[in-house]
Design a protein that fits this description.
heterodimer; A: 3 helices; 80% helix; 0% strand; B: mainly alpha; two-stranded antiparallel ribbon; 22 helices
Chain lengths: 50, 530
């Protein structure tokens, strides 16, 4: 599953861009969480190793 | 200039987090970048009063900006994979023996001179991703290869890429007279002589140890001064071409040096990577020129297009850009609106040149069967798999720098440094330039970020602006050695992703040391009434 996580980074961009420009805080925080989740693949691997 | 020390400390926290994760906890660049980004977001929201939509937009800006870097990483990795699959690196290593059997001179030729040449015309990390694998093919250890290329490209970061960073600085400030601009230029280019000579020295040391330093000291000094002072002389006529012309002359010079009897004796690397025997058999039949085809094509293509204003104009017409709304923090820091933020001209982008070069290399090698069945799939798969973690780290690092920039953290850091140091600020000025490049991986971005600030400090302190502005861009050039994003390009290119902290440990002392010397020189120049 971890190898598909980076797709979330791509998905988060339009969300961040649109919500940021339109002043939607809820959309922006969702986009940020999505981005961080998308970037967390290496953390997951680190924890799996432990 | 007043400032809030709590805000300053909090603004420094994301950078501190990044450094601790990379240098002390030895996390990989992709993990450390996420850590830095999360802390920068928390500080921006919790201390600087940025709204959630402001944070979202700042992250989006960072992601958009990082596309430009990822567009270099992927095709550069394609070139590497094409050359690797075709066995070109083995041929290059053998071919370099005909240039000179002195392996230290070979490393200087690729890691210092060729890197400088590529920096002169392309920049954007291309010299690091292209030359680090070439150095490995010559027997240099992977991490050492990254360190060497980082050092080699530094001096070209102001007047390289056809003078882009210098133009960025000039656009940010107002020179009262052409004389002030000329003085700034002379100061900047002369400061860069130091990083040039120091880089040559350390590259020689890394390649051949102290024996090589003693053997090549005269050459390093001569080349360093030729490149450094040559750049100064040419920059007085053309800032756009100064680095490129001097690097080209330097290429000719080192080729001539390789033919001297002094360099016709074998000299080994002092800590060489063992060469695998199976690789020796892969490249039979390939000539040296064929091995260099992707690189030759890259240089020719870049020169033909970037030095021709008409072609540049035509290809640069197609641009991609996004509009961003204005946002402001609760503390009153305003991130201005932009109708076309950080435009990308796909046909003029370094990534396009690299992609085309990789394609030409692939077609040539495939036609001559240097690349066998299934090679295309392997090349593509390897390049994609290496680009993903590297791309994640770049997104994280650039997003962090944009969050800091867009919410006023970066400005507070610079203002605090000026307020704390007062009349001693000239010593700190190059470190501000370094900070800008450290965060953005670009001397151009550093100059845009802090050029106006340095000018304001000069006015406030009632001193001439030339030395401060020169310190800004020279410090920024040195910052390119330490920038995590640029280090990441190198570790990705040599297949050592995750070792960014190890590279930074080896270069941080050199970078900070050179900046400290800049600071002392600039401070003394003001003290003596300069």
């Amino acid at each position: 599953m971890g190898s598909y996580l980076p797709i979330l980074i791509v998905v988060s961009f339009p969300l961040l861009y649109i919500s940021g420009n339109q002043g939607s805080g809820a959309g922006a925080i969702f986009g940020i969480l999505l981005l961080i989740l998308g970037m967390s693949g290496s953390f997951l691997k680190r924890f799996q190793k432990k | 200039m007043s400032f809030d020390i709590t805000q300053w400390v909090m603004a420094f926290t994301p950078i501190l987090t990044l450094l601790v994760l990379l240098l002390i906890l030895r996390w990989g660049g992709d993990e450390a970048a996420v850590g830095g980004l999360v802390v920068s977001l928390a500080v921006a929201g919790g201390v600087f009063g940025a709204s959630l939509d402001h944070l979202g937009l700042a992250v989006a800006k960072g992601m958009w900006t990082s596309i430009s870097i990822i567009l270099v990483i992927f095709p550069a990795l394609l070139i590497y994979e094409v050359s690797h699959e075709g066995g070109a690196f083995t041929v290059i290593r053998r071919g370099m023996q005909t240039f000179t059997p002195d392996k230290v001179l070979q490393v200087l030729a690729i890691g210092w001179v060729f890197v400088s040449f590529l920096q002169g015309i392309t920049g954007f990390g291309v010299p690091v991703v292209v030359c680090a694998p070439l150095l490995i093919s010559m027997g240099v250890k992977p991490l050492t290869a990254v360190v060497i290329t980082l050092l080699g490209q530094a001096w070209g970061n102001t007047f390289g890429t056809l003078g882009l960073a210098w133009d960025g600085l000039v656009a940010q400030v107002t020179f009262e007279s052409p004389g002030v601009e000329r003085t700034t230029l002379l100061w900047a280019s002369n400061l860069l002589v130091l990083v040039n000579v120091v880089s040559g020295f350390f590259i020689t040391l890394l390649a051949g140890g102290w024996t090589a330093v003693r053997r090549n000291l005269l050459l390093v000094l001569a080349l360093g001064i030729l490149q450094g002072l040559g750049q100064t002389l040419v920059a007085l006529s053309s800032t756009m071409l100064s680095n490129f012309i001097v690097a080209t002359v330097s290429m000719g010079a080192i080729f001539f040096v390789g033919k001297l009897p002094y360099y016709r004796h074998p000299a080994e690397l002092h800590d060489a990577e063992p060469i695998r025997e199976e690789a020796e058999e892969d490249a039979s039949g390939m000539t040296l020129f064929q091995a260099f085809i992707p690189y030759v094509f890259l240089v020719v293509l870049a020169c033909v297009i970037l030095l021709n204003d008409t072609l540049k104009g035509i290809l640069g017409q197609w641009k991609l850009a996004l509009a961003f709304a204005e946002k402001s923090t609760a503390l009153g820091f305003v991130a201005k609106a932009s109708d076309a933020y950080a435009p990308i001209a796909p046909l003029l982008h370094s990534g396009a040149f690299l992609l085309l070069s990789a394609a030409v290399g692939y077609v040539c090698y495939r036609q001559r069967n240097y690349i066998g069945e299934g090679g295309f799939g392997r090349i593509l798969k390897n390049a994609v798999m290496k680009t993903i973690p590297s791309g994640i780290a770049v997104v994280g690092l650039i997003a962090m720098s944009k969050v800091m920039d867009e919410t006023g953290q970066t400005a507070i850091l610079a203002q605090g440094a000026a307020a704390m140091t007062g009349t001693a600020y000239p010593f700190v000025a190059p470190f501000i330039g370094l900070l800008g490049t450290f965060m953005t991986a670009s001397n151009l971005s550093s100059n845009i970020l802090f050029g106006g600030f340095q000018e304001q400090v000069a006015i406030m302190l009632g001193i001439g602006k030339a030395q401060l502005l020169a310190a800004q861009t020279a410090g920024g050039a040195v910052g390119s050695i330490l920038s995590p994003s640029k280090i990441l390009l190198g570790t990705t290119a040599v297949g050592m992703m995750g070792s960014e902290g190890l590279v930074m440990r080896r270069v941080i002392g050199i970078g900070l040391g050179v900046c400290a010397v800049y600071g002392i020189v600039v401070y003394l120049s003001y003290s003596m009434g300069g």
